[in-house]
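User: Hi! I'm working on a homework problem where we have to compare a predicted structure to a textbook description. Could you give me the structure for the chain below?
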Amino acid sequence: MARRGTLRRWIVLLLTLAMVVGGIYTAFAFVQRSEVLITERCTAAGGTAELATDQAANAGLITAVAVRRGLPARAASIALATAMQESKIRNINHGDQAGPDSRGLFQQRPSQGWGTAEQVIDPYHASNAFYDALVKIPGYETLEITDAAQRVQRSAYPHAYAQHEVMARSFASSLTGQTPAGLDCSLRAPDEAGDPAAVQERLSAAFGGVPASLDGSTLVLDTQGTRAWAMAQWAVANAKALSITEVHADGRSWTRQDRNGWQPSDVPAGQVRITVADAPAQ
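Assistant: Happy to help. Predicted structure tokens:
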């Protein structure tokens, strides 16, 4: 009888442990799948640098303009550090007490010759205006980021740009294509269908024309090398706004639902594929 009682207790204990382990696994799996619990963000350099999704999209635009102009990644790093200090990389339509007419990503002032009030709030104009000023600085590529930024902006806080250097370098390296598969975004499922033609329009506005074709809900770009990776990671940075679900480039793929970063893919070099969401089920 004693042996039976001991055996029964062991059976109960093992069943209890199995239920506890099963419950923990179920809870973990739920957390992994739960859309509500996902913190939407974009990271670079293995997660050491982080931006909100709207900031990442603006960073993608600023960097794409540098790529289009044939500028080095260093130029994009300087621009991103500047935009983070001036506007948190957001296209804000107001200034501050020191510059009441400041506007846009770089808080440029019409009164100081950066353009009209309408132009400085246009991210494309603002980015080009910043680079126009930057390239006039002799040897800007070898200057400290904060020094180069200050020579363009002439801020009352000349050393403030330095605090954003790590973020700026990390995102610029990925978004210029210098670091393949370096940018990742964690996103919830899209709540509306995407439009590959709209993706092409936005991408062309940022980078200039690139040979492209449509394959159903996928935009296929004929490009390779660092430019291919610049466009692919621009697409990831814009995935939330444009309802992008998959990006394939040079044998790697980013999938919105996977949330495990870039994985091996069978898409060959010389082609970037950007797939958008279909209409969500009602």
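For your comparison, note the following. The chain has a mean pLDDT of 88. The chain has two domains: 49-175, 189-276. Good luck with the assignment!
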